[in-house]
Write a structure and sequence with these properties.
The chain is an alpha/beta fold and 227 residues long. Helix content is 33%, strand content 22%. The strands form 2 sheets. Strands 3-2-1-4-5-6 form a 6-stranded parallel beta sheet, sandwiched between helices. Strands 7-10-8-9 form a 4-stranded antiparallel beta sheet, with helices on both faces. Helix 4 links the parallel strand 4 and strand 5. It is globular, with a radius of gyration of 18 Å.
Length: 227
């Protein structure tokens, strides 16, 4: 389903987050470019996503210029390096005048610094999960991450984007893969404890625990795809 006002969005970093974000935004009708400095990673996802993937270092001015950053509406830096994400977003704002920058923050201690330096929005999965644990689990009941890994269980984040087929639906109405556990809905920066009658809204981030091999099935539900 295409949207009314498509944007030009540059995503720097082609890991899982960058890959799924690019896929979802493209399906919604946005013009997307993914920049990835690791040639093998870039080539691997280009086989599926096509020419929207650019093998380039998103921290270099020349690469940013070639990517057309000056006309980008949004730049999203989701590499595994906080320093790179900060540099990318600062350059996008100061040199290219990008209206909105979003940075992935791997170390929650860096969030305040990013905000002080003018990054519009930061996303920290570590912080989200920490907040969930702090709010919902009493001392002594924390599940060690090693136990999740041994059970091949992943914590997955799925965003409700404009036109998402599940927007407006209640969690209890979703046809989820077996043994999926929705552990929280992040709305307006706050973690909500979900219930079967919790209605999903545009902009929500749904946090789920699921067996690793069923992650694609879960994302397909939110994308309205058939596997």
């Amino acid at each position: 389903m295409a949207i009314g006002n498509p944007m030009y969005i540059i995503i720097v970093g082609a890991g899982k987050v960058g890959y799924y974000l690019a896929k979802a935004l493209t399906q919604e009708g946005h013009e997307v470019l993914v920049m990835e400095k690791d040639r093998k990673v870039a080539e691997a996802i280009a086989d599926e996503l096509g020419d929207i993937v650019m093998h380039a270092d998103g921290c270099e001015v020349r690469s940013m210029t070639e990517a057309g950053m000056a006309r980008a509406n949004v730049v999203v830096a989701v590499t595994g390096d906080d320093e790179d994400n900060l540099v990318i977003c600062q350059m996008a704002k100061r040199k290219f005048g990008v209206p909105r920058t979003i940075a992935r923050v791997n170390d929650p201690k860096n969030e305040e610094l990013f905000q002080e330096l003018g990054i519009d929005q930061t996303v920290s999965s570590t912080r989200i999960i920490f907040n969930l644990i702090e709010q919902q689990i009493e001392t002594g009941q924390v599940i060690p991450l090693a136990a999740l890994k041994k059970g091949e269980i992943e914590v997955v984040e799925v965003n409700i984007t404009p036109g998402c087929p599940v927007e407006g639906m209640r969690i209890g109405q979703l046809d989820l893969p077996p043994n999926t556990l929705i552990i929280s809905v992040i709305r307006d920066g706050h973690a909500l404890i979900p219930h079967a009658d919790t209605r999903l809204r545009q902009g929500d981030s749904v946090i789920a625990m699921i067996k690793a091999e069923r992650e694609k099935e879960l994302r397909a539900v939110f994308a309205g795809e058939q596997l």
